[in-house]
């Protein structure tokens, strides 16, 4: 009887840890379509007025349209990353045309969002994304990174807005989406544990799922060869471990792609997650690249918790002792952090660095007591000399 109850507890923890919303790919697509509706409605209305099936084509060759730059300058709404050097202390700082980037603006009634002079063509959009990565996200001078993230996040939404209005597709669209997905996956790891007022993981997740769904749709419908498709198919599954739709999508891929090494590894990790085998999952995780581990990292806290729960039941004996260093190896943590993690879950570690498991003593930590970012050793050790620029551009 006790054994059955223990099994149900473990299954419940895995279900709770799995990403919510099994319809991840479908719902993300719907979110993108809903956000684009006001903009597409304006496009259709303009088409009807012109009496033809015209799609707006941007002519703005700058990262920020001149009119927007003048307006934001007059309203003192320039971000400090966009201010012309030397005018920072002025009563009304001037905007730097080479550094200002079009900001995201919500669609509004009566606002013409299809003006070609306000839209950037695909080549300029890709140039803008590369600028945001190279000069902002990867900069060693700009800090804190929470502010860097907030700025890049908003400007990428502006890029997406221009893409939707112009119905951008093809290789430029894929190149933009790939870099955007990498940015959000990296940010989900780097900013883990930051206060909600500075970084909201749910908002980041919502937009990441949307960009990821859009990118996978491009792969499925585009005739062009996509050399990075294997990378992003694996990232999608690792980020959405336990999702039936994510796994089904992988199984519907061509055999050549499905049998690629990174996708095969992602499938094995997903299988270990479904089988509630955190030991095997963490062992396989050592074979992942840095960015793949970033995608996996949001599941690490649940894996650590379930491993301790399973061992608390399996080794629950008054005379049983488990070596702390061996447990540290299984958790992919150093010994002091492993002892802290045990303490957080009520697992005793004696003076001889031996773990005393007890199913009765296992308890959930208080909310806010367990800092997830302390237990990212398996991710941080893979970064080594990789720069943010290399990570996001896919040169890692």
TrEMBL record:
Positions with biased composition (Basic and acidic residues): 27-50
One GO cellular component term noted in the UniProt record for this chain: nucleus
Highest taxon of the lineage: Eukaryota
Basic residues biased stretches: 1-15
Residue ranges constituting the SAC3/GANP/THP3 conserved domain according to the UniProt record: 63-350
Gene3D superfamilies for this protein: 1.25.40.990
GO biological process: centrosome duplication; spindle assembly
Protein's recorded name: SAC3 domain containing 1
Region annotated Disordered, chain positions: 1-52
Recorded name of the encoding gene: sac3d1
């Amino acid at each position: 009887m006790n054994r059955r109850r223990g099994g149900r507890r473990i299954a419940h923890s895995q279900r709770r840890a799995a990403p919510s919303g099994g319809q991840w790919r479908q719902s993300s697509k719907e979110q993108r379509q809903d956000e684009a509706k006001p903009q597409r409605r304006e496009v259709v209305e303009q088409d009807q007025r012109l009496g033809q099936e015209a799609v707006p084509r941007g002519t703005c060759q700058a990262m920020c349209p001149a009119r927007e730059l003048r307006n934001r300058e007059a309203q003192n709404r320039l971000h400090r990353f966009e201010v012309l050097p030397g005018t920072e202390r002025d009563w009304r700082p001037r905007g730097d045309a080479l550094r200002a980037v079009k900001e995201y603006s919500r669609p509004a009634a009566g606002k013409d969002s299809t003006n070609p002079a306000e839209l950037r063509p695909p080549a300029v959009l890709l140039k803008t994304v590369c600028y945001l990565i190279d000069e902002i996200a990867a900069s060693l001078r700009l800090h804190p990174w929470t502010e860097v993230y907030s700025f890049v996040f908003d400007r990428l939404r502006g890029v997406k807005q221009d893409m939707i209005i112009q119905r951008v597709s093809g290789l430029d669209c894929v190149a933009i989406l790939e870099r955007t997905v990498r940015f959000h996956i990296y940010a989900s790891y780097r900013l883990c544990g930051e206060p909600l007022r500075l970084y909201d993981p749910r908002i980041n997740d919502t937009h990441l799922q949307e960009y990821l769904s859009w990118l996978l749709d491009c792969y499925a419908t585009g005739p062009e060869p996509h050399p990075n498709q294997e990378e992003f198919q694996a990232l999608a599954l690792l980020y959405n471990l336990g999702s039936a739709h994510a796994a089904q999508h992988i199984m519907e891929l061509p055999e050549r792609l499905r049998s690629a090494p990174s996708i095969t590894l992602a499938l094995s990790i997903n299988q270990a997650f479904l089988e509630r085998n955190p030991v095997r999952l963490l062992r396989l995780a050592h074979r992942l690249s840095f960015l793949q581990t970033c995608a996996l990292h949001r599941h690490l806290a649940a894996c650590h918790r379930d491993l301790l729960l399973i061992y608390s039941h399996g080794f629950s004996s008054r005379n049983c002792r488990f070596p702390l260093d061996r447990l540290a190896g299984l958790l992919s943590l150093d010994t002091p952090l492993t002892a802290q993690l045990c303490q957080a879950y009520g697992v005793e570690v004696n003076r001889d660095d031996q773990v005393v498991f007890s199913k009765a003593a296992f308890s959930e930590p208080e909310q806010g007591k367990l800092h997830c970012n302390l237990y990212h050793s398996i991710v941080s050790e893979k970064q080594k000399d990789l720069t943010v620029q290399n990570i996001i551009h896919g040169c890692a």
